[in-house]
Design goal:
The chain is α/β, with parallel strands linked by helices. β2 and β3 form a beta hairpin. The chain has helices spanning 2-10, 41-57, 68-74, 81-84, 104-118, 146-162, 257-268, 290-304; strands at residues 22-24, 28-30, 38-39, 61-65, 92-93, 100-101, 125-131, 176-178, 233-234, 237-238, 248-251, 318-321. This is Glucan endo-1,3-beta-glucosidase. Residues 247-332 form the X8 domain.
């Protein structure tokens, strides 16, 4: 970011082009209640503070990818669906600062503000660079569904166009980028990953929502559901149920053999994974494919690192799944 900024200065473009980089809410050590918001200690000195200082000096803003869907999916027993979807609800009072929250997104953003404030960076602006809700998901992806997606995105538009800032920053306008315009039908990962769009790849609408003030007049807030909605089918048929919270790391077969092999060599070498099971004659040698062997090694590394953020990436060669991967008779170790 600093290098690119120096180039912009040399071209006299630094005042008109601002640089930033998005963070996920997983970089927070604490987010509930919002007033306790704090960054993970291991990220503060090497990443967060230098970046916030850069953003402050260049008058840029912190980009945040915030997805209430993930919080609801993991805590549906304690988080109200109406609270997550901006629908009418009793609200939640923050025990730390006494502020009342009527939506989960507002609470998440104020947790980021609180984390920034703890580091003395109250003056850095914030923009929501991604948020959305999937219209389809696997059986264990609680809350994924077309009605819920329409309610979240439609009510989000209404919230941004007619509301103020967050309870902690009421005078600061919300700037939000909706994810996504189109369903990414070739994307890897859980079914939800392919179903965040407002449109199908053939340009047909997935559902109707208001997108400007004029269309808000007839918006009622989306259907209210007594139970979470799930669509349990994928392009290839039905999907199996898996234990809540279990995740595995598998290889991205579309990346190409060269990069997969390099990542496999790293996992079994410097990464410290015991790869004896994928040697000839061993339990997980069959099927004898690079993708299967790489999945074994990637998952071994991922589980060894306690499924920490960034440990299932390998330069794009791997991704996390929530259904048990099948590679012949080989079963990959699962984590909760």
């Amino acid at each position: 970011m600093k290098n690119i900024h120096n180039v912009l200065i040399s071209k006299k473009l630094d005042s008109s082009i601002k640089l930033s980089s998005p963070i996920a809410l997983s970089c927070l050590q604490s987010s509930y209640p919002s007033s306790s918001g704090s960054f993970k200690p291991e990220l503060i000195e090497p990443v967060i503070k230098p970046m916030l200082e850069f953003l402050k000096q260049t008058d840029s803003y912190l980009m945040v990818n915030a997805y209430p869907f993930f919080a609801y999916e993991s805590n549906a027993d304690v988080i109200s669906l109406d609270y997550a979807l901006f629908r009418d609800n009793p609200g939640n009072v923050d025990s730390g600062n006494g502020l009342k929250y009527m939506s989960l997104l507002d609470a998440q953003l104020d947790a980021v503000y609180a984390a920034m404030s703890a580091l003395k960076y109250d003056d850095v602006k914030l923009v929501v660079s991604e948020t959305g809700w999937p219209s389809k998901g696997d059986e264990n992806e609680i809350g994924a569904g077309q009605d819920n997606a329409a309610a979240y995105n439609g009510n989000l538009v209404r919230r941004v166009l007619t509301g103020n800032g967050t309870p902690l920053r009421p005078k600061v306008d919300l700037e939000v980028y909706l994810f996504a315009l189109f369903n990414e039908n070739s994307k890897n990962g859980p079914t939800s990953e392919r179903n965040y769009g407002l449109f199908y790849p053939n340009e047909e609408k997935v559902y109707n929502i208001p997108l400007n003030r004029a269309s808000l007049a007839g918006w009622t807030g989306g259907k209210s559901q007594t139970k979470p909605i799930n669509d349990t089918t994928t392009d290839g048929g039905s999907v199996s149920t898996t234990g809540s919270g279990q995740t595995w790391c598998v290889a991205n077969g579309k990346l190409g053999q060269k990069k997969l092999q390099q990542a496999l060599d790293y996992a079994c070498g410097e990464g410290g994974v015991d790869c004896q099971s994928i040697q000839p004659g061993a339990t997980c040698y069959d099927p004898n494919t690079l993708e299967a062997h790489a999945s074994f090694a990637f998952n071994g590394y991922y589980q060894k690192k306690n499924r920490m953020m960034g440990t299932c990436y390998f330069g794009g060669a791997a991704y996390v799944v929530t259904q048990p991967p099948k590679f012949g008779k080989c079963q990959l170790e699962a984590g909760n």
